[in-house]
Amino acid sequence: MKRILFSIIMAVVILSFVSPSWAGMVMGTLAKIDEKGSFYFVKDAKGKEHKIHFDDTTKKTGDVKEGVEVKVDEDKGHAKSIEVVEVKK
Questions:
Q1: Residues 46-59: tens digit of each pLDDT
Q2: Alpha-carbon gap, residue 85 to 62, rounded angstroms
């Protein structure tokens, strides 16, 4: 019983440090757009760069330059919407 409880606790601790970049929302600065124009590379506050696919189905709000907020489809890494937000300094 103690082994099972210890295993569960260890699994929870390990999983608490895992954060998949392809799921949910990514906020950061637009680092670049690929040459073909189908991927954004967004650098988050921790400096990690996220490659996010977009196309004609992606809803865009504002002039996409820096400080973009991207809502990403959890299954495919595809941007559902991109919204320009104010960069905090």
A1: 888 888 888 888 88
A2: 9
Contacts of 83 (CB under 8 A, 6+ apart): 60, 61, 62, 68, 69, 70, 71
Other Cβ atoms less than 10 A from the Cβ of 42: the count is: 26
Q: What stretches of 1-89 adopt beta strand conformation (E)? A: 24-33, 39-44, 49-53, 59-61, 68-72, 79-84
DSSP-based three-state secondary structure for 9: helix
Nearest-angstrom CA–CA distance, 28 and 21: 12
pTM, 2 dp: 0.62
Q: What is the DSSP string of 13-29?
A: HHHHT---TTSEEEEEE
Hey, how many other C-beta atoms are within 10 angstroms of the C-beta on 53? Answer: 15
- Taken in order 3, 6, 12, 13, is the CA torsion positive or negative? negative
